[in-house]
Amino acid sequence: MSQGVLEQKITLRVEAKTIKETLSQIAKQANIRFVYSQQLVGADRKVTINAQDASLLAVLDEVLSPLKIQYEVDNKRVVLRAPSESLSTIDSGRQDVTVSGRVVDARGEGMPGVTVVVKGTSTGTGTSLDGSFTLQAPENSVLVFSFVGYARQEVPVTGATSDLRVTLTEDKQALNEVVVIGYGTARKSDLTGSVASVSGAQLTQVATSDPVQALQGRVAGVEVTSNSGQPGSGTRIRVRGVGTINNSDPLYVVDGIQTSDIGFLLPADIESTEILKDASATAIYGSRGANGVVLITTKHGKAGATQFNLSGYTGFQQIRRTLPLTTAAQYATLVTEAYTNAGRALPDFAPQLQNAIATNAEGVDYQDLVTQKGLITNYSLSASGGTEQNRYLVSGSYFQQDGIIKNSGFKKFVIRVNDDIVLTKRIKAGVAATFTNNNQTGSGDGQGGAQPYLVLQYALQTNPILNPFGPNGTYNEDVITRNALNVPRYLDEQKYNKTQNNNLFSSSYLDIELIKGLSFRSTFGINYFNNHPKVYQPQYYIGPVDQRAQSALIETRNENISWVWSNYANYTKTFADNSSFSATLGQEAQRGYGNGISITAFNVPADASLQYASASRSTSNVVRSSQYDGSLLSYFGRANYNFRDRYLVTGTLRLDQTSKFLGPVRKGYFPSVGAAWNISNENFLKDVSYLSVLKLRASYGQVGNQNAAPNYGYASVASNNQTYSFNGVPAPGLAISQINNPDLKWETAVTTDVGLDAELFNNHLSLTADYFERRTQDMIALLPVPDYVGQAPASANVGALRNRGLELALNYRNEVGKLQYNVGVNFTKINNVVTSLGGGNPIASGNVLTQIGNTTLTDVGREIAFFYGLQAQGIFRNQGEIDTYTNADGTKVQPNAQPGDVRYQDTNGDGVITAADNTYLGSGTPDFSYGASLNLSYSGFDFKVLLYGVQGAEALNGAAFNLNKSADFVGVWSNFYASRMDRWTPSNPNSNQPRVTSTDANGNDRISSRYVEDASYLRARNMELGYTLSQSLLGKAKLTGARVFVSVDNVFTLTKYTGYDPEISTAAFYNSPLAYGVDYGNYPQARTYRLGFNLQF
C-alpha cells in the first residue's frame, strides 16, 4: 500500500514557501496526511520546487532530503522526523574514505561540470572534462550528483572505491532553463518577449579578445561585423538592423551593471550571454533600450574544493588573400599606353618605364613588404571554490596578437576576482572587480585615426617599379606615384603609434529576503576608464614631396568615470491552482563624467626619453580639452501573471529623466506589454507525444535611444575663427555656427513582435521564429533653415525609420551510438526604409576617398546609405556605338567619348550625362544573413564548425577605384589590378575593361556601378578538432581533466568580391551607418591557426 502511495503522480510549483505550506499542498493533491512536530522539522524553513507529473516519492525526496528530514509512510499517513541525536553522534565518528569515479550520461559519455556533494555537508567537488572526480567522504555517507537539465542522483558510500560509475539521465522538467532578463531571471517558458541565449563555451571557440566578435553567426537577428582585422580594433553589433542614422549600439549590462562597452572582458570570463530584442524584454531599460540589450553574466565561484583551470593556445595568423596587382613590366606597359592614347609625350620618368618593359621586371611586391605572419597567444588561469556560504573566483588572463601588417599588434591583460557570501538565511552579498590593461600598436594618430589602414592603401597604390630603399638605410623618393609616402618609412613610423587603455570595473550586490515571497536587491557598480593614445612623427626628408619639416608629438589623455546604483524589490506568489504572479518595482540612478586633454607639439626630440610635450622647442603647439557630466534618474516596474503555465501576461513601465535634454522633454515614459500562450500545456495536446513545447507570444511597446544625441546637443555651437572690426581695428571673436534646439529629445522606437517557440521529438528539435517591426520616431536629423540665416542647421527630432524583419532559429541534437551531434542554423531578413527626414535634403556621405567625393545617399523611401552614382552600361567598342548613342535631336549623349570609354545610362533622359543622372546602385544592407554550427563528439573526440554569411549585400570597392582607374590623378600613377591588362584596345574590342588614358575627358573614373560589387559571402568562421583525455591516460598526473585542440579561424570565404574582405567596411566611420559598405582597402581579417589546451586540477 505504501509503495502505491509513493508512486502516484502530482504537480507542484512553489517558490520560497515554508515547509508547512508546501506539505499542505502535497497532502491535498496526494490525498495523504502528514504527521510531524513543527519545531523538530523546522516547519518555517523555506523551500522552492517545481515538479510536473512527478512521483510523490521524487517530490518528497526533493523537498525533505536537502533539509535532512526523514520520513516513513504508513498507508496514507506520512510521519516526518528529524535525524536522531544518536545518529549524529555516530556519523561524527565515521572515518573518511577516498571515492573516485566517473559521471556519464545515458550514452556513456563523460559529463564535465557535474556537482558532487556529500549529502548534508558543504564538502564537494566538480567533475573534470571527461566526467572524472575524486573526493574524501565519510564511510556510509551519501553522495549527491547534480547537473542542470539532469535528474539528481544519490549514491551511498560503502567504502573506498576508485571505479564508481554514475549515470545521470535527462530531467525533462529541468530542461526548462532559466535565463537572465532585466533586473532578474525567468524560466524560458515564462517569457513573453524575444530573448536569445549564448553559452560561455560557445564564445571561446573563436580566437579573439573581443566578446562581441565571438557572437558572430550565433544568434538570429544579431549582425556582428568586425570593424577591422587590426588587432584590438573592436566590433560593430546591430540587433535587428540599423535603427537610426545616429548611434545604433546596444546597451550592455554586466552582472546587472549597465555599461556602453564590454571590451574589458575576455570571452573566457563569460558564463552566459542573453540578448534582449523586443520591447517586452527591453522596455525595462527605457531610454537606453531601443537598439537591444546584451546581458552578460560573468563566471563566479562554485562551492567545493579549490578547482584550478588552466587554458591557453598559441598559433599564428596570415593574410587570407592578396590582391592580384600588375608587375613592374605590366605597370609600365599600361602607363606608356595611357600617354600614347591621349596623344601626349611620355613623362619625365619614361626611362624607368622603358627599362621595366625591356627587362620584363617583376618589381616590388609591396603587399609582401608590409605584411607578415603574426603570433597569437592566450593564457588564462583561474581558481574557484569555497563553501555554500562563501564562494570565490580569482582569474588572470593574458592575450597577445601580432598583426598581419607589420608594426601593428595588441596586448590585453585581465585580472578578475569575485566573492559571493551568505551572511544569514535571509541576506546574501557579493563583490566583484575586473581590471583590464590594453596596449595597441599602430593604433591611430592620437585623434581617432587609423594609420595601419593607410599603410595598406599606400602599399596598393605605390608603383612596383622603383625600389623604396636607398643605400645605407636611406629611402628613395617615388617620382612616379608622387602623392604616396615611402611605404617602408611610413611602416617603420607605426612603432611610435601606440594607445594604452586601463579599465577598472567593479560591482557589488546585497540581497535581502524581507518576508515570504518578497525580496530586495541593491546593486552598485562603478566603471573607471582612462585612454592614452600617443603618436610620435619624426622629422625626415626624402624629397620635395615626401618630407616632414619638423617632428610632431600628438598625445591625448582621456578619463571617464561612471556609476550605476539600482534598488528594486521582487515579489512572487504561487497559488493553489499552480498559477503565479510576480512583480518588480525599482529605482535607479546613473552618472557619468569625464574629461580629456590633447596636445599637438612640434619640434620634439627623436630620443625616446624626450618624447613628451614639454621637450618641444616650438611656440606653435596646440592644446585642446573637453569635459562632460551627465546623469539619469529612473523608476521602473514589471508585473507578470502566469495562469496554470498556459496563459502569460507581462507589463513593463519605465520613467527616465536625463540631463542630456532640457525642461519637460528630459522626462520620458516607456511602456510595453507582452502575452504568451503555452499551447503545449493545453489538455487537447496532452497526448501529442512528439510535442514538448509549443508557445505563441506577442509584444508591443516603446523604448528610447538617448545615445542618439550628443552631450549638450541642445546648445548653440560657437566657433572662434571669426574676426571683427572695432573702429577699424581687427579683433578676434566668436560667432554662432549652429542654432540651438531646446526641444531636442531622445529618439523613440515603437516595436511589435510576434513569435513562436517549439520543441519536438523529446526536445531533440527546437525552433524559434519571430516577425517584428521597429518604427523609429523622432529620429535626430538636421532641420533645414533658410540660407539667409547664415548658420548650420540645428539638430531636431524630425526623422523616421522603419525596420521589418523575420528571424528563424533551428537546432537539432541527437546521437547515433556513441556519436553525439548538434546542428544549429539561423536566418535573418530585415527590410530597412527611411520614412522621413523632416523635409530636409537627402544626406550624402561616404566620402572616404576625397578624389571620389560622397558615395552614399540616405533618402526617404530607401534604406540607409545606399550607393549613389552613374549606372555604367559597358564599354563603347567602336565609334559607331558612340555616334548612335544620341538624344532626341540627334546630339551625342557622350560627345567626349572615344572607343574604349565607359558608356553611362542617361537616367533622367535629358540627353546629357551629368550628376543629375546619378541613381541607386545598391547598398551594404544585405537581403538576409545566416549562420550555422555543427558540433560532433565521439569517444573523447569533438569537432566543431561555425559558418556565417550574408546574401544580397553590395560594397563600394574604393581600393578598386585606384586599381581599376583609366586615367591618372594630376600626374600621379598608382598601381593597377592585374585584370587591367585585359583593357580595351583596338585589337581587344570586346573587353569589359575600359581603355587607359592619361586624360579622362569622358569621366571613366567617376563614381559609378563599376565600383559597386556583390559583397555576398559565406565564411567558415571556425573549425576545431579536440580530444579530451580519459582519467586512465592522465596516469599519475595530478590532473582531474585535460583537453587538447587544434583550431583554424576564417578557414575559407566564398565570395565574388574582389577586395580583401567583404565583411570589412567603413573603417573610418565605425559608429556611423551613413558610410556602411564603403571599402577603401581596409585592414583585412586574418586566417588563424591555433594549438591549445584546457587543464583542470
Describe the structure concisely for a colleague.
The protein has about 1100 residues and is mainly beta. Among the domains are: about 1-85, 3-Layer(bab) Sandwich (Phage tail protein beta-alpha-beta fold), CATH 3.55.50.30; about 95-165, Carboxypeptidase-like, regulatory domain (Immunoglobulin-like, Sandwich), CATH 2.60.40.1120; about 180-300, Ferric Hydroxamate Uptake Protein, Chain A, domain 1; about 805-845 and about 925-955 and about 1010-1095, no CATH class. The strands form 13 sheets. It has a 22-stranded antiparallel barrel.
List the keywords:
mainly beta; Immunoglobulin-like; Ferric Hydroxamate Uptake Protein, Chain A, domain 1; 22-stranded antiparallel barrel; 5-stranded mixed β-sheet; globular; transmembrane beta strand
Structure description:
InterPro entries: Beta-barrel_TonB (IPR000531), Beta-barrel_TonB_sf (IPR036942), CarboxyPept-like_regulatory (IPR008969), Plug_dom (IPR012910), Plug_dom_sf (IPR037066), Secretin/TonB_short_N (IPR011662), TonB-dep_OMP_SusC/RagA (IPR023996), TonB-dep_OMP_SusC/RagA_CS (IPR023997). The protein is 10% helix and 48% strand. Helix 8 (328-341) crosses helix 9. Strand 27 and strand 28 (518-537) form a beta hairpin. The two termini are 49 Å apart. Mean pLDDT is 86; it is low at 84-93, 445-450 and 1066-1070. Among the domains are: 2-85, 3-Layer(bab) Sandwich (Phage tail protein beta-alpha-beta fold), CATH 3.55.50; 94-167, Carboxypeptidase-like, regulatory domain (Immunoglobulin-like); 178-301, Ferric Hydroxamate Uptake Protein, Chain A, domain 1 (Beta Complex), CATH 2.170.130.10; 805-844 and 924-955 and 1011-1097, no CATH class. The strands form 13 sheets. It has a 22-stranded antiparallel beta barrel. Strands 15-20-21-18-19 form a 5-stranded mixed sheet. A 4-stranded antiparallel sheet has the order 8-7-10-11, with no helix packed on it. The chain has 1097 residues and is mainly β. The chain contains 15 helices and 57 strands. The relative contact order is 0.11.
